[in-house]
Specification:
Layout (H helix, E strand, L loop, with lengths): L8 H17 L6 H16 L7 E4 H13 L26 H12 L5 H5 L4 H14 L1 H4 L2 E2 L2 E2 L4 E5 L2 E4 L3 H7 L1 H18 L4 H4 L5 H6 L3 H15 L14 E4 L14 E4 L1 H7 L6 H13 L1 H11 L5 H17 L3 E5 L2 E4 L2 H6 L3
Antiparallel strand pairs: 1-5, 2-3, 4-5, 6-7, 8-9
Helix pairs in contact: 2-3, 2-8, 2-9, 3-4, 3-6, 4-6, 12-15
Amino acid sequence: MPQLPSPSAEEQLRFLSNIQRVFAEGDFTATYKYALLIAFADLAVELGGDDGRELALSTRQIGERFIQMYWRQALPYGKGLLDSSLGVLVQNNGVQAAVISAIAAFRATQCGGTYHFARNLPEFQILLAKVAQTVSAQPLNYLQNFGGTTNDFLYERVGPGKVRLKPGVAYCLRRFHPLVQQLARSHWIGHIKANPRNHIILGEADDLENFLFATSRQSLLMMADGLRKLDGPSCFYCAARLTAGDVDHFVPFSQYPRDLAHNFVLAHPSCNRSKSATLAARPHLERWLERLELRRDAIGEIGQFAGLVVDAQVSRQIAAWGYTSAKASGGSAWLAAARYEPVDEGYSACFAT
């Protein structure tokens, strides 16, 4: 497909204005529209490019992202906190959201609790078909309705089970990915908190965001244990010996808030804090890419065991997007404590091979 010019500054502002109007003027009876925006943004990063081309997607691709996002949310929430009781959070103003009910029913009949395990079961395709049908019938029909009218600024239907992000949309979703994610997640949390049927479940809880979107502590501990056995007891960044180590997102979670097994490395807590929300400098990137190539299968096995999403190519694509975005904005990369370097053309060359 031939490349198209990237959207102008005026077109990008119009895109952001329409996104803001979706949240301000749209009718959110369930959390599906938030999930759909997150799915679009993630898929644009992972499958799109840095020009204005359209991006074709299937409802099954979107449906699989819905299952990943709602997988943990279909479990009961509640930890014996003050004034709370155990229950599955209600994500619809009426009856429970159909996606939650379908996942909960599926989980009740399968052995093992991880998404990766479930994905390999024959019955998973039945679940995926149900979720894809719900996505097609509900959020895809209504997301672009706001302000009393329909504004088809994001996508169009192009056949049964298929949609296409319009020219420039994938580019904007890639460029403004952190903002779209933040808006969708904060409104999602607000929607659940505002539902009176959730008040007795939530009680005085203050960890709702972690429950909805973060990887479980058990999965992170399993990932850390596996990485220590695979890579040895040393910090990925400074190479010094580890006693206690953090599982660090190589591409920072604040930039791409999705937990992928191949994006994790073990690091000293001090290196992790120093790097914080910054991309790692070129020497670290080169070693990470080499490790990704040489140990992708082993890291994948660790991730599967920990119940994480495993896709080495997607992790590489996300990193390429992150460094391209940093270069375009004049960003810097972390080399060591208080040491940074500009992200220049040399970083692009790392992904050329």
